[in-house]
Design a protein that fits this description.
The structure holds two protein chains of two kinds. By secondary structure, chain A is an alpha/beta fold. Helix content of chain A is 34%, strand content 26%. Chain A has helices spanning 46-53, 76-86, 102-113, 117-130, 146-158, 176-193; strands spanning 4-13, 20-30, 35-39, 61-66, 69-70, 87-90, 164-168, 196-201, 212-217, 220-222. The two termini of chain A are 21 Å apart.
Chain lengths: 223, 362
Amino acid sequence: MMPLVLERVSKARGRGSRAARVLHEVSLSVAAGEIVLVEGPSGAGKTTLLAVAGGLLTPEEGRVFLGGRELHVEARALDRRHRARAVGFVFQRANLLPRLTVRENILLMGAIAGLRSEDVAREADDLLAGLGLTALRDRHPHELSAGEEQRVAVVRAMVHRPSVVLADEPTGSLDRAAGQRVAESLAELARSRDSAVIVATHDVRIASLASRLVQIEDGRISQ
Amino acid sequence: MAACSTLVITIASAYRNVRLALSDYAGQPAVDLWIAPAGADNLIRGSFVSFVPLSDASAIRALPGVARADPVQEAFLPVQQLGSRDPGKRLTLLTIGYRLPDGLGGAPAYVEGRAPRANDEIALDRAAAFRLKVRVGDTVDFNGYPALVAGLTSGTNILATQFVFADFDAVSSGGEAVGDLPVRRLRGAAFVLVKVASGADRDVVIRSIEDRFPHLRAYTREQFTAANEREISAGFVPLLALATILAVGAAALLVGLLILSVVDERRGDIAVLLALGTPAAAVGRGVLVQAVALSLQGTGIGAFLSYGLYLALDAALPTIPLRMALGDVLATAALFTATGLAGAIVPVVKLNAVDPLEAFRS
């Protein structure tokens, strides 16, 4: 079973005569443990692709299968619950909640996914230790460097063992070294957990970590 | 929020004090029945025009089942420092005249000194003594005559005025003649206070009094207390309600704006939570919890400030009497919690405008 399948998905922004197509009949499948790099210029539709794949946007046409389940055919609450368990997000900025510690930020994801707190805590500690971040666990985001924050965000995206991880420009606001470490962390955790990963990026420096490269331009992809 | 709840608790405490001051006096356990002319069922709307003839008081005393029947006089009389000619320093106080030394109708409690024993002695409410700058043992000008302040009473301050307790005849005899002007003398009693004999049926005594004296009404202690509370509520409750409405309105606006600013400030975090899969209802609940916490904190600080104000006023300015009650604080907390929830409605509605996709842009 492919963790993520998009079948002839189209998505427009705006309505009526002002509607503009952002995705044109996009089809894409990502296998477990596979890291797909989606590369393209600004406005090409990378973020929209991630949002549709993650169930945050409903396509006008086509079908989206996430973790073996088709989205947008059942009640929205069921979709939300399913995607909370099945998807992990990494944003361009870490977007950690500033009032929570590193560990609390990670545990929060487990709570959102509806997992047992003991299990999530154990997993969080293992992940932090694996990436050498244990010393930061009780710190608040403002006490971390941008690279550290983003690696914590990677742990947050992985802690509930999602079948799909969607990362939007995860190295976009980092320097080369920090970006490299974040990309390596993401790749290492995704492969060890068999998660399907889509990384939308401009950063071709991390292409070496990808299993596959996909180009997107004007909402159409070429593989 | 704290200032609003302080205002509400303080006004409620002032109202409680006035209500209890009247009911403490009207409800004193030594008195079973209050006999008054028809229509005069409380101390405020007392019988300043019509009176119970003193002969009726004697006749009531002779009825079967009556252990005691003492007349009580009620009048607004001037009190000032002895020798003072400054009308601005004269207080007009609600004067209760009763049969000294131990007739029914005396002060319910003393904080200092003792009850008056002779017709040239009085007992003053302690706030009145504070206003007059007199103490126990001082002599004051009471209705034109010198009188010794024998004691200071508590629970007898009804904010607009205070009580004075004096001899029945001294209160009835009117004031000092000014030139050739005639002095009004009170012929009769404002009320007759009855103690029912042990073993006698109170209802039977009431019927016998009202049958024998059709121009009089006999009220049980409970009825008379309730009538006094009703009378004071009629004047006070609209003020309390107005202040509460204004305070609640201000608090709701404050909570609303505060929570709205928090929602705006944390819009990015909210978008992230929604993108990660948090139900919008859970985020809304979080906002409501924050509003309630804010309201309870405000009420807690308000209660603390009110208590401080109560202690300060009691020590330094007893003319403004407060009686704080836990019930008032809890009611205020409940009211302000509801206010906080109401104030959070707009911010919660505004949450719907937060798009989870903002997490990608922030």
